[in-house]
Amino acid sequence: MVSNWKIKERTILSIMELSKSAMPNEFSGLLVGDPDSRVINDIYIIPATVNGPASSTIRQDLVPLSFSIVGSVHSHPQQSSLPSSADMRFFQSKYINIISHFPFNKYDFSAYNSKGQNIALEIIP
Questions:
Q1: Which of 3, 30, 85, 123 stands the most exposed, by the fewest C-beta atoms within 10 Å?
Q2: Which CATH number fits the domain that encloses residue 83?
Q3: Partner residues linked to 57 by β-bridges
């Protein structure tokens, strides 16, 4: 599992809080960062996103045009962060994708590359 992506601690904690608050539904958003330094430092919450108990749909027409969007994040209300086939299709256009899972503590997530391969993600201050 090789990767040199990093995420700010405040960002991963925000993801976990948003994931908890969406229960029993999924939460989803887009990861914001610098693709050159590979540091994720924020998330975009896209208006009109539909979050349900088994899926989440982001309105692509409302996603801002930005080179700082480096990936996606969504939650699984159960204790699994394994990607579904729909997740794998969505991953294809992103550098990095995070799936958080119940109970949504700081390390309750997995990260994947655009091919759906599990990658390491370091939490930094």
A1: 85
A2: 3.40.140.10
A3: 50
Give the total residue count for the chain. Answer: 125
Taking the C-alpha atoms of residue 124 and residue 54, their distance in angstroms, rounded to an integer, is 30
Strands of the 5-8 sheet, one edge to the other: 118-119, 109-112, 96-101, 69-76, 28-34, 39-44, 5-8, 121-124
Q: Kindly report the backbone phi and psi dihedral angles of residue 39, in degrees, each rounded to the nearest multiple of 5, phi listed first.
A: -115, 125
Write out the residue range of the structural domain in which residue 94 sits: 5-124
9, 17, 26, 122: which one is catalytic? Answer: 26
Segment 35-62, tens digit of pLDDT:
999 999 999 999 998 888 888 888 888 8
Tens of pLDDT, residue by residue over 60-119, are 888 888 999 999 999 999 999 999 988 888 898 889 999 999 999 999 999 999 999 999
